[in-house]
């Protein structure tokens, strides 16, 4: 039996492995990968193996990835594709990552966690969460520099949680954000009853950002309840409609799914919920999702020594930037602009003559009937 096998069994745990943040080790399915009853193709085994991967590299990997994020500049992860030089690519000065999800999914808590891990901000919550007040909900788009650095190469936008009863309106607004860009302090309007919000919030003067990547945040506790506890399936149906919205896909790739509130479930429920939602969305149970525990209302993790969760969050951000730098397009030249203007002119002329044809046809029919 190898050292890796010993590390993967319940019977040979050392003091580090027995700590509470290795929650997956307490389930009966946690066995040696060489056990004849285990199958390398099973989703359960894949998740357990992924958690062990995170555990084994978290201690050294966190600092390494954090350093890469600290020195990251927009376009650093871009690779030459199609014979075009980097100087010819339309790379924004700041990569913009947008967090979306249902109300109460944990987006604001996730932002606080980013500040705590990357900004070393201590126990101060930088973004108010719905847990702090039952009546509170993020009502505007908020830009966050989670690295707290003047040389930051990316920013994270927190958005209003989508209402289950108004999903179509919410998704339409997200499509608008993806098309027209977003600004800090921009009101989130999901209906006419929210128009008054714009009177109190103004995004004027703030830079408009092009959304480069979208992260979908989902409450794992709600997901498990919907699938296994006879709960309403409406939340998972809403997550699916959001996740597969064509507007938020970049480079023909799915967004990253971050599962929160998993720490409120039993270990076996936590894994089964992850497997089920990944299967439902048609994404890999390992590379398609990250299980990240929520922050408490004081802005700290339930378990302060949880290096696995620290590393999972850092890796998730790193992957969003890798994917974002694949979405850049070539710069528009004067030739492209001229072609675009001519095409718009031709479309306008076609519409004008179409209207004339319709009018004359109506006049002809009226004269014939008269």
UniProtKB/TrEMBL annotation:
Cited InterPro entries: P-loop_NTPase
Transmembrane listed as a keyword: yes
Keyword Endoplasmic reticulum attached: no
UniProt entry keywords in alphabetical sequence: Membrane, Transmembrane, Transmembrane helix
Residues passing through the membrane, by range: 338-360
Protein name, as recorded: G domain-containing protein
Source organism of this protein record: Lactuca sativa
């Amino acid at each position: 039996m190898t050292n890796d096998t010993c590390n993967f069994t319940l019977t040979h745990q050392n003091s580090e492995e027995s700590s509470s943040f290795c929650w997956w080790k307490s389930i009966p399915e946690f066995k040696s990968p060489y056990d004849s009853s285990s199958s390398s193709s099973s989703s359960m085994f894949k998740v357990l193996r992924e958690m062990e991967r995170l555990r084994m590299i978290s201690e050294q990997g966190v600092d390494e990835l954090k350093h890469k994020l600290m020195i990251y500049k927009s376009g650093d992860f871009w690779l030459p594709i199609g014979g075009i030089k980097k100087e010819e690519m339309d790379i924004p000065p700041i990569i913009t990552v947008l967090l979306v999800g249902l109300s109460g999914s944990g987006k604001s808590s996730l932002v606080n966690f980013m500040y705590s891990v990357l900004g070393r901000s201590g126990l101060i919550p930088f973004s108010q969460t719905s847990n702090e007040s039952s009546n509170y909900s993020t009502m505007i788009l908020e830009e966050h520099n989670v690295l707290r650095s003047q040389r930051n190469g990316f920013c994270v936008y927190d958005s209003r949680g989508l209402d289950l009863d108004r999903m179509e309106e919410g998704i339409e607004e997200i499509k608008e954000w993806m098309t027209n860009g977003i600004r800090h302090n921009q009101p989130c309007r999901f209906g006419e009853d929210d128009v008054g919000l714009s009177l109190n919030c103004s995004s004027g003067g703030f830079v408009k950002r092009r959304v480069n990547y979208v992260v979908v945040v989902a409450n794992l506790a709600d997901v498990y309840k919907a699938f296994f506890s006879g709960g309403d399936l409406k939340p998972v149906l809403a997550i699916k409609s959001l996740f597969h919205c064509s507007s938020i896909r970049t480079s023909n790739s799915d967004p990253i799914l971050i599962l929160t509130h998993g720490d409120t479930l039993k270990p076996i429920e936590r894994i089964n919920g992850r497997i089920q939602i990944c299967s439902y969305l048609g994404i890999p149970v390992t590379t398609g999702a990250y299980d990240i525990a929520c922050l408490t209302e004081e802005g700290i993790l339930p378990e302060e020594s949880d290096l696995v969760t620290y590393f999972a969050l850092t890796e998730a951000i790193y992957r969003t930037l890798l994917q974002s730098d694949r979405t850049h397009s070539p710069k528009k030249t004067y030739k492209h602009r001229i072609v675009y203007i001519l095409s718009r002119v031709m479309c306008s002329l076609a519409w004008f003559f179409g209207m004339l044809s319709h009018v004359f046809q109506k006049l002809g029919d009226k004269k014939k009937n008269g």
